[in-house]
Each structure stands twice: as structure tokens, then as C-alpha cells.
């Protein structure tokens, strides 16, 4: 869907690690390759646009808006159009554009379309899904979004290169040019610059809102915009953050000997076991319970993992019993796992006695287990539960209400993103890109130091096993920034999962928190 899966990343990293060899030069008398001659020539891209009018009621406030669904053309260094980027923008009617904030919104993947945030969080229409159950098949409900962000900011939903209605002029070369941590950020930076010019928004307060891999993108993009494009931002809003992919619980086996990811995911395991009533002595309140688990994770548990094979068997048993009391898995299973359980194993095992697999993106969800004898989860019940509603809802909405894409295919995910995605990243000040898991913590820190008035907002769900909340909190607390800039960061937590807006009460809280963040950082105040 819009987050990383284990097989995908392993494949991508394998591709990065593989050596490359130059092809032998053809002989002077060699004949031209007929297949290459038959390849289609790059398409000449043309920007498209459809304007419509609409209205939304946000927490009782009526807002009239103009909607623009269209594409902007990205150029190479020669000024030749290489990619067409689809966007849907919403402008509040009657607002002073020079004072009205504008927020650029995107999902992650990498390579995902921005259908999730558009139809689930902040667009004027919201698709209706069940809270923690599989949503019934079509027809799906599409309703006024009481928590659209249009009350606080104009909105620009952007589809990544190759995703949604975004296309490449050269179908072969385009993905190679755009699929990577750094070229992806460059593409979004160029899009934002072109958008500001087209709509006269250079002097508007500006915000980035990224979810999942979109937070990785935001860190790189914020630094790029400010340090190289002279586009200072008022704020960067992060939802379900991942800045250092080496700390994701899906992949600790790729980095043996480093146990931090097991420690940081423990509170999410505990929250999930608490939600599904898998604890023998279940606490009444979630938050005090999580505070206790966090202390254990960074104390006794950390010491036990650090001991490795030197850990006394009796001590190992005691830690396993303690873990059982927190995360609900059998003591013997925890011991056999050497006290180290990855995400897929936890999702498969927590409710296996009921024949259920626990959700990854949102561990409140459950679904029938595909194979009880598997070691890890075979699928994500949350993705299965709501994806069809979002896809159907957007495809119907964009054509009937935004009047765009009638004869085009909307790609939920950019074709060829994996294994073609280049995860290597050149950190600020580094002499060259480094292959492997990207770590963009230095990028966000550099952006905050370059612009010491940049504000950052972190939003996390307690039931997110893809990008655990305690991992995001750890990343934020380890930004290499001076103490004077710590006050620029605020954090919020929700009783929901990766897509916190999938839970209606959390959507309201997310809206209110983000709107308040914009109102107090746009140098203008409520509009």
C-alpha cells in the first residue's frame, strides 16, 4: 500500500548491493539494434487542468472553495519535460492569497499515490470505512468531511512521480531518473516551485505534510527547499514518522547485533495486546501502562538484550515472563525467539489461538490467518479492510466531481518502484551518497538549523506496527540540534494506527491539532 514491506526492501537493498558492469562496446561494424530502433520515442507532455467549485462544512463552519485537478510538468536540466505530476488543489474562496497558508500533502510508499490523506484525512470529501473491521463492499459512502483542513489552509494533494495520474515522458528512462530518495525530493521541490509561480503563492505561509515514507521525503525536501531553493517553510508536519529506516522492526535481522528496534517497538506490542485483551492483568488505563513499558524497554530489557549469549538462563526466563505480562505472547515462544520478536512474528502470533492475524498498519484490526503454520503474518488485515473503499471512492470522486481523468488509469502505486527504487542518500555535508537504509535525521536537523524559525509537528498512533510511536519519539529526541531549537518541536499521540484518521475520534483530534499548529505558526493567526 503506502508503507514498506519486508520483501520489497530486501529486494531493493539487494539491488543496491549488486555490482554494476559496463556493457561491452559494440564492434565498429555492428548493426543497430532493431529492438532499440523500435522503442517508442518520449511523449511530449502537456499540462492539463480542470476547475470546479464546491463547499464543505468543517466543524460547523461553511467554506466555499475552488478545486483544481491538474498536472504540472517537471523539466530536466535542458528544459525538456520529463514527468507530469498530478495534483488536486483546494483554494478557499474570498481569502487573501498572500496571507492564506498553503499546505503540500503527500503519502509515502515510496511510490504511493496520495489517495489516503486526500479521501481519509483532509480533503473536502471523506470515504466512510468501519473503525477496526473489514468495510463492507461497494457501494461505499462518500460524505462531507467535517475535519477537512480547509478551515486552516489551502491544500495541495500531490501524487508521486509515476503514481496516480502522474506519468513519465519516457516510460523506460523516467523511473530510473525519479525513483530514489534524492531524485524524488528534487521532483517535489521542482513541483512546489512551479506551483508557487503558477498560483502566485510565493508569499503565502508554507507547510509540508507527509505520511509514512512521506515523512522521510519531508526531511530531505525541507532541507533542500530552504538551503538550495531559498524557500523557507513555516512548518513541517509529520504523520507516522520514519527518519531512520534501519530502526524499523520489520528488518532487524538485516542488522544483527543492534537491538534498539526491539526496544522501541515494545510499547506498540503492549498497546496492541492491551487492545485485544491478551494480558492476564490488563491495566485499566493505556497511557500509564505504556509509560511503564517504555521504562522497562530502555532499562531491564535493554540490559538483557545487550548481554547477548552471556545472559544467564534464569535471567532470560525472568525477562521472558515480564515480556509475556506486557505483550501477551507465550513465555516459551518469547524464549525460543531469544527475547527478540519482529513485527511479522508478533502480528501472526498474538491472536493465533483464535485463528486471527493482527494488523500491521493498524493493530486494532484483525483478519483470518492465511496459514497457521507460517512464522510471520502473510498479509495486513488493515490494508485488506479499507483499501477498496479508498480506491473506489477516489476513482468515482475525481471523475464525477473534479471532472478529471475520465479516460486515464489511476495508479495506486507507481509501477516499477521496486526493485528499482534507489535507497542511497547523500546526507547534508556528506561527500557522496551512502547505499542501504537511508537515515534522514541529519536532513531534518539541518533544515531546522538553517531556518531556526521552522516548526516541526510529530503525530503518531499507538497501534502503528509499521512506524512505531516510540521509535518516532526516539528519533525526534536524537535530532542533532541545539537545545534552543527543541521548543520548535511538538508531538501528539492518538489511539489509532498508522493512518490515524481511520479512527473518527483520532481524525478530529488530528485536525484540531494540525489546524492549531498552522494558526500559531503562520505569522498571521486564525483566518
TrEMBL record:
<keyword id="KW-0645">Protease</keyword>
<keyword id="KW-0732">Signal</keyword>
<feature type="compositionally biased region" description="Basic and acidic residues">
    <location>
        <begin position="26"/>
        <end position="46"/>
    </location>
</feature>
<keyword id="KW-0378">Hydrolase</keyword>
<dbReference type="GO" id="GO:0004185">
    <property type="term" value="F:serine-type carboxypeptidase activity"/>
</dbReference>
<dbReference type="InterPro" id="IPR029058">
    <property type="entry name" value="AB_hydrolase_fold"/>
</dbReference>
<dbReference type="Pfam" id="PF00450">
    <property type="entry name" value="Peptidase_S10"/>
</dbReference>
<dbReference type="GO" id="GO:0006508">
    <property type="term" value="P:proteolysis"/>
</dbReference>
<keyword id="KW-0325">Glycoprotein</keyword>
<protein>
    <submittedName>
        <fullName>Peptidase S10</fullName>
    </submittedName>
</protein>
<feature type="signal peptide">
    <location>
        <begin position="1"/>
        <end position="17"/>
    </location>
</feature>
<keyword id="KW-0121">Carboxypeptidase</keyword>
<dbReference type="InterPro" id="IPR001563">
    <property type="entry name" value="Peptidase_S10"/>
</dbReference>
<feature type="region of interest" description="Disordered">
    <location>
        <begin position="26"/>
        <end position="51"/>
    </location>
</feature>
Amino acid at each position: 500500500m503506502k508503507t514498506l514491506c519486508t520483501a520489497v526492501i530486501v529486494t531493493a537493498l539487494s539491488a543496491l548491493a549488486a555490482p554494476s558492469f559496463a556493457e561491452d562496446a559494440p564492434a565498429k561494424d555492428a548493426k543497430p539494434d532493431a529492438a532499440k530502433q523500435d522503442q517508442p520515442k518520449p511523449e511530449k507532455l502537456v499540462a492539463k487542468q480542470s476547475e470546479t467549485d464546491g463547499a464543505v462544512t468543517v466543524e460547523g463552519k461553511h467554506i466555499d472553495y475552488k478545486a483544481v485537478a491538474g498536472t504540472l510538468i517537471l523539466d530536466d536540466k535542458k528544459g525538456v519535460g520529463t514527468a507530469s505530476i498530478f495534483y488536486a488543489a483546494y483554494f478557499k474562496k474570498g481569502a487573501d492569497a498572500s496571507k492564506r497558508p498553503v499546505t503540500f500533502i503527500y503519502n509515502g510508499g515510496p511510490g504511493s499515490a496520495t489517495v489516503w490523506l486526500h479521501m481519509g484525512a483532509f480533503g473536502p470529501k471523506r470515504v466512510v470505512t468501519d473503525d477496526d473491521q473489514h468495510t463492507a463492499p461497494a457501494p461505499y459512502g462518500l460524505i462531507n468531511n467535517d475535519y477537512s483542513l480547509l478551515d486552516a489552509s489551502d491544500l495541495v494533494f500531490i501524487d508521486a512521480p509515476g503514481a496516480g495520474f502522474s506519468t513519465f515522458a519516457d516510460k523506460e528512462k523516467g523511473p530510473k531518473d525519479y525513483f530514489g530518495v534524492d531524485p524524488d525530493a528534487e521532483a517535489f521541490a521542482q513541483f512546489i516551485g512551479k506551483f508557487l509561480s503558477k498560483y502566485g503563492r510565493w508569499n503565502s505561509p508554507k507547510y509540508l505534510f507527509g505520511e509514512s515514507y512521506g515523512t522521510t521525503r519531508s526531511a530531505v525536501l525541507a532541507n533542500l527547499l530552504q538551503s538550495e531553493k531559498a524557500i523557507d517553510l513555516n512548518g513541517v508536519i509529520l504523520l507516522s514518522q520514519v527518519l531512520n529506516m534501519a530502526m524499523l522492526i520489520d528488518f532487524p535481522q538485516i542488522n544483527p547485533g543492534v537491538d534498539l528496534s526491539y526496544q522501541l517497538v515494545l510499547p506498540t506490542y503492549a498497546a496492541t495486546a492491551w487492545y485485544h485483551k491478551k494480558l492476564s492483568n490488563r491495566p485499566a488505563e493505556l497511557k500509564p501502562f505504556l509509560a511503564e513499558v517504555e521504562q522497562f524497554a530502555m532499562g531491564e530489557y535493554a540490559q538483557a538484550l545487550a548481554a547477548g549469549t552471556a545472559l544467564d538462563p534464569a535471567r532470560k526466563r525472568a525477562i521472558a515472563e515480564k515480556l509475556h505480562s506486557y505483550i501477551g505472547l507465550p513465555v516459551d515462544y518469547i524464549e525460543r525467539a531469544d527475547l527478540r520478536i519482529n513485527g511479522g512474528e508478533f502480528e501472526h502470533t498474538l491472536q493465533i489461538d483464535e485463528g486471527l492475524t493482527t494488523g500491521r498498519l493498524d493493530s486494532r484490526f484483525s483478519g483470518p490467518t492465511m496459514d497457521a503454520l507460517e512464522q510471520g503474518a502473510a498479509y495486513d488485515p488493515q490494508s485488506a479492510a479499507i483499501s477498496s473503499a479508498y480506491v473506489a471512492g477516489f476513482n468515482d470522486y475525481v471523475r464525477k466531481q473534479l471532472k478529471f481523468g475520465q479516460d486515464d488509469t489511476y495508479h495506486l502505486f507507481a509501477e516499477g518502484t521496486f526493485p528499482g527504487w534507489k535507497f542511497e542518500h547523500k546526507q547534508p555535508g556528506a561527500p557522496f551518497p551512502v547505499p542501504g537504509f537511508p537515515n534522514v535525521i541529519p536532513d531534518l536537523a539541518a533544515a531546522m538549523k538553517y531556518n531556526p524559525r521552522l516548526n516541526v509537528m510529530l503525530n503518531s498512533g499507538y497501534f502503528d506496527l509499521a512506524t512505531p510511536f516510540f521509535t518516532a519519539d526516539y528519533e525526534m529526541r536524537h535530532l542533532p540540534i541545539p537545545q534552543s531549537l527543541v521548543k520548535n518541536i511538538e508531538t501528539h499521540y492518538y489511539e489509532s494506527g498508522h493512518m490515524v484518521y481511520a479512527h473518527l475520534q483520532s481524525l478530529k483530534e488530528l485536525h484540531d491539532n494540525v489546524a492549531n499548529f498552522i494558526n500559531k505558526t503562520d505569522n498571521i493567526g486564525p483566518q
